[in-house]
Model the fold of this input.
Amino acid sequence: MSDEQFEPKIVGFLCNWCSYRAADLAGTARIAYAPNVRIIRVMCSGRVDPTFVLKALSMGADGVMIAGCHPGECHYIEQNYKAMRRFNMLQHTLKAMGVEEQRVQLVWASAAEGQQLAEAIDKLVADIRALGPLGWSKNWEENGERIKALQDIVNEHNEAMEVPR
Amino acid sequence: MAERVGVYVCHCGSNIAGKVDVEEVAKWAGEHVKDVVVARDYKFMCSDLGQKMVEDDIKNEGLTRVVVAACSPHLHEKTFRRACKNGGLNPYLLEMTNIREHCSWVHKDTAAATEKAKALVSAAAERVKFQEPLEPTYVDVNPTTLVVGGGIAGLQATLELADAGYPVHLVERQPSIGGHMAQFDKTFPTLDCSACILTPKMSEAGQHENVTLHAYSELEEVSGSVGNFKVKIRQKARKVDFDLCTGCGVCVEKCPRKVVDTEFEAGMGNRKAIYMPFPQAVPRVPVLDTESCIWFERQRCGACQKLCPTNAINFEQEDELIELNVGNIIIATGWKPFDCHKIPQYGYGRLANVYTSLEFERLCNAAGPTNGKILLRDGKTVPKSVAIIHCVGSRDLNHNPYCSSVCCMASLKFAHLVTEKTGAEVHSFYIDIRTNQKDYEEFYQRLLDEGVHFVRGKVSEVTDAARSENERGKLIVQAEDTLIGRQQRFPVDMVILMGALEPQTDARELGLKCGISCSMAGFYTERHPKLDPVATMTDGVFVAGACQGPKDIPASVVQGAAAAARVAGMITKGKVMIEPVVAAIDEENCSGCRICNNLCPYNAIEYDAQRGVSHVITALCKGCGTCVSACPAEVISGAHFSNKQIYAEIEGALWDAIRPAGVPGESETAEVSAS
Done:
């Protein structure tokens, strides 16, 4: 490994039934892939609260992977569709915050697709390596508009959350 | 009070230690991860001594949390939960992190793998502090079992359970049970007649007081979980009243419409539009094929209806949905033959005297279309020479990479039958001869003595284009004999293609219904390939026979019996443990927004209109956690996967990341949320 090469730190949220098992299978089959993704097991991709992604990015992760069963193959019938919807909304928010969309990727991998998961991880790592470190706070400082956009999101959210008494 | 965390890093022999510096990881965890009071590495954590180490440390060091960094939790979480329990710690205060499948086995660089292992251990150690003691619940197991598939594996499972005194529902898609074995003539290596050993089992299943047969039915829907599944079965319309029919066969005899039987006779023989697939069919109730029936074509004929002595024919009969409650499910849906049309150079479908193995089975069968005489398609010529081609569609990267495992023995059986019945010369073209079960190799030796020619080489083509006088009117098999290193042409009268065993076309679909997964090839995945070959990842669902991978009759019977034994064990125990990983709503703080209500696919969230709050019906909740992440007020908690736990895990996983300025430090973050 060359000294100059940027090694991104990535958090992966993998569903217990398909993707985590795909990663297990990749292991059993000794399919080599980049060591940058640190895997966190959740029961379903539907459990992935967008907050988790924001939390990971704010804690210094350069990217996030969310992986679940293929659409139509969810262990919990259809919860991966909910993950998909949240993911799309989250991408919208992230964009407003200046986070490139390749940094957060949603991947489908069935328990038999160790190879595909390994490839997806390698792709994610390559994509993020090309983007460089997230540089989150730097982005904020350089561009005042982003702070405003972020503030707007928070305000909108708070308004929506207000329960009339 | 600070937790006292114990971290155990497994070497797994050299499986982990070969790539990850386990001693360094353990040492680092002891020194750098907060609240870790014990950090050890050990050769084999899952061994008795490894487990004992955890138990002793809980007792002697007062551990309140345990982290085991080893293999996948799917493999050994139970082992270490038990160890915690034995040490007096609630089993849910354990966290396993996977540094084998997810780390040492997939990364090439030792330094990088060690760094990743540290991050994974740190994540687990941070998370485990927020874990809470949980108590599993127990539910009763319904003693009734559903067996899907009435081939030999399913029949064996059915009879084992029924004989043990437990009720069984046997669902079979075809009009009769029996499966592929009913089509065969002889079975290897003993050459006893397939029907003679199968039909007693079929009729026993048909008459057994504990067996309810659902032939000509399909599994439509499965809900519920281990111990208490609810299944829907579609009883396809036979157009024959099951209770009135006596099986006399007058309708079949009088039906004027003959069609080619592509199912049971594999296209080699005919059947009527109303038919029983074969004389020993169980149940002995015919099925009317509406596709070919004259009545359904143009509302004429109706001979069967007029002549039925018990008025059992009912053209208006519709599919019926039957609902059943069962405790366990055994899937034994078997295999389907490879479509030999896919290898056009072998000429199947184009050259008349090229047969598939199933067609040849019917040709040999005394109850088959030629009464067991081996004849060419013209119906009168006895072949003087026969070629058998192995591995058609298996061990072939263009089709199926796997070995179909039964074809070598089946082809030896065919070679024997041809020699015995016709005296024809047999050439058997193989890649490798695989005869690795009891008495199989002896059978191969016997065939060598019988004078069968074995040619080691893959056939490149089968053609009828003659190049010389002695090839005229013959099928010419072109192959390289790799043992003498020469291309050769073999003129023969008949060619038999030993097609691969493939998973059923709808295997994935059925797997989805039952919550079990398939391998790349499409065979069902067992829980453990060696140690748990008939259980699946879904509790209460078992697999048996060729639906799990190509296998012969003895192996299918073994699996059928094994699955039955596993189910019988569950029934005898009477109760199963249900994981306490479920969601719960803090009703005090629920605003009653009802966002979660529609998210639950199991309808486990109920809205109490009077109190204006939602609550979770624990028995229905499967613990996916989708509602937890959707609750805008964060008042739904997901046991064992709570927000706090996952936040801590994220933080731990990123222990070495450079935190942007302004992000709160470790102690506060667990409380921080998006809003």
About this structure: The CA atoms of residues 279 and 367 of chain B lie 9 Å apart. Chain B touches chain A through 66 residues (CB under 8 Å). Confidence is low (pLDDT under 50) at residues 665-675 of chain B. The two ends of chain B are 29 Å apart (CA to CA).
